[in-house]
Amino acid sequence: MPRQLGDLEDAVMTRVWQWNRPVTVREVLEDLQQERSIAYTTVMTVMDNLHQKGWVRREVDGRAYRYTAVSTRAAYSAALMNEAWSRSDNPAAALVAFFGMMSAEQREALRDAMRIVRPDLPGASGPPTREAADEVADEGTREAADEPTDEQAGDPVDGAGPESGR
Predict the structure, then answer these.
(1) What is the per-residue burial (b if ≥16 Cβ within 10 Å, else e) of 105-123?
(2) Which residue has better confidence, 8 or 133?
(3) Per-residue pLDDT tens for 131-144?
(4) What pTM, to 2 d.p., does this model score?
(5) What element of type H or E holds 15?
(6) Residue 53: which H helix or E strand, with range?
(7) What Rg value do the Cα atoms of the chain yield, rounded?
(8) Contacts by 80-83 with C-beta closer than 8 Å and gap 24+?
(9) Which is more confidently placed, 16 or 127?
(10) In this structure, are residues 81 and 35 in contact, taking their beta carbons and an 8 Å threshold?
(11) Range in 28-37, 49-58, 72-81, 152-161 the model is least confident about
(12) Cα 46 from chain centroid (whole Å)
């Protein structure tokens, strides 16, 4: 099961996910320094830790590494939600409480997602909004790009992020 990222890990991964390309420690450092004072070695250690935990893979580029996300932020978020839900002693009540916390925008996103995943469900009539369909399609494309190749078979890729304990 995935472990929630720490604050600095999340700040680093946010950049890796947003940029959606291989990044260097230097690039992440320079962007982080716009918000906080931070040392190169700190960012390097965090990115190495993220690699060891399976959140990013890395490739040598000259004398540095380029890091790439193993899965998407959406997959990470979904895995955290699933883990929290599975720990509930009353999953139905947990869902009711969760849905009760949602904003109108989040409820609409949920309806759009349900129309995409299960168009046969009652109340799911009508197509999802164009934005929702495009976002899901884009997410699927990014997920497919993250599938391991034979030489990466040792990388922990499961579509939902690393499991805790790594």
Answers:
(1) eeeebebbeebbeeeeeee
(2) 8
(3) 555 555 455 444 44
(4) 0.65
(5) helix 7-19
(6) none
(7) 18
(8) 80/2, 80/4, 82/160, 83/1, 83/2
(9) 16
(10) no
(11) 152-161
(12) 17
Give the pair of three-digit tokens for residue 140: 């699927």
User: CA of 83: how far to CAs of 49, 58, 68, 110, in Å?
Assistant: 22, 27, 24, 19
Mapping DSSP to helix (H, G, I), strand (E, B) and coil, where does residue 64 land? strand
Q: Report the number of secondary-structure helices (H) and strands (E) in the chain.
A: 7, 2
- Cα–Cα dist 120/75, whole Å: 24
Distance in angstroms (rounded) separating the CA atoms of residues 22 and 156? 18
Which amino acid appears at position 79 of this protein? Answer: A
The reported pLDDT for the residue numbered 152 is: 38
